[in-house]
């Protein structure tokens, strides 16, 4: 994740488009918000729309707006998200699911920096930085005619690839801190060491979104602000086993097993003894002593 954070810092001051790629739930919108917060547009609005959640006609109205009477149900003027995000950032989430005809209209808007509301005749200028996110391989889709290649190169001045959470387990403690701050409010919440170890070893098929849901769940249902191993969902408890980097393949002395497991946690934390100590429930000096024994 350190590489992703470095990229965020580097692309945030720019105005070019950023394409954020990753599996569903990997935190693409979190990255987009981080780019916005670090950019010169931080005081402007951040607006996000899921292109996969709306049919083409409704998505066009959401993006570009419409005038009163443009279609049945258009009882008043609607500015559209490009204008609502004026001076800020617009995230086109799951842009790969946008219909091809609408992609053509989006390309023209990005080129001209203007939108025309549905049913209207007046072009309206916008000042917005456009970010996009996808769980698809858009370049491959473009080669197969499923996505416009010219749109791809317009939105992908910069690319940020987000690995799934199972490949960046060292990020779990930091993500937990962020979600605890978001959901616990005035109610303190802490994960006991055994629970933390289980979270690090879990494969997280739902990625960051699954972790976020877990913290929200625990913030309301766990007594006294402590999350114990037994409080974790059944799917996590049922998966408890050493992962591929640490297996109980033979019988070893307890001290050797302990040292192996500490080394395993250190690898997960990229050598960060502070994070490893927090996960193991011991201090840094104890880690060093046990590794040297």
Break the fold down into its secondary structure elements and pairings.
Layout: H1 2-11, E1 18-22, H2 28-37, E2 46-50, H3 56-64, H4 81-84, E3 89-93, H5 100-112, E4 114-115, E5 124-125, E6 129-134, H6 138-143, H7 149-155, E7 158-162, H8 172-183, E8 190-191, H9 193-201, H10 207-221, E9 226-227, H11 234-237, H12 254-268, H13 273-280, H14 284-292
Parallel strand pairs: 1-6, 1-7, 2-3, 3-6, 8-9
Antiparallel strand pairs: 4-5
Helix pairs in contact: 8-10, 12-13
Written description of the protein model:
This protein is of the alpha/beta class and 293 residues long. The protein has three domains: 2-163, P-loop containing nucleotide triphosphate hydrolases (Rossmann fold), CATH 3.40.50.300; 165-241, Helicase, Ruva Protein, domain 3 (Orthogonal Bundle), CATH 1.10.8.60; 246-293, Arc Repressor Mutant, subunit A, CATH 1.10.10.60. Helix content is 45%, strand content 12%. The protein contains 14 helices and nine strands. It has helices at 2-11, 28-37, 56-64, 81-84, 100-112, 138-143, 149-155, 172-183, 193-201, 207-221, 234-237, 254-268, 273-280, 284-292, and strands spanning 18-22, 46-50, 89-93, 114-115, 124-125, 129-134, 158-162, 190-191, 226-227. The strands form three sheets. The chain has a five-stranded parallel beta sheet. Helix 8 crosses helix 10. The longest helix is centred in the last third of the chain and has 15 residues, at 207-221. The two termini are 32 Å apart. 32% of the residues are buried.
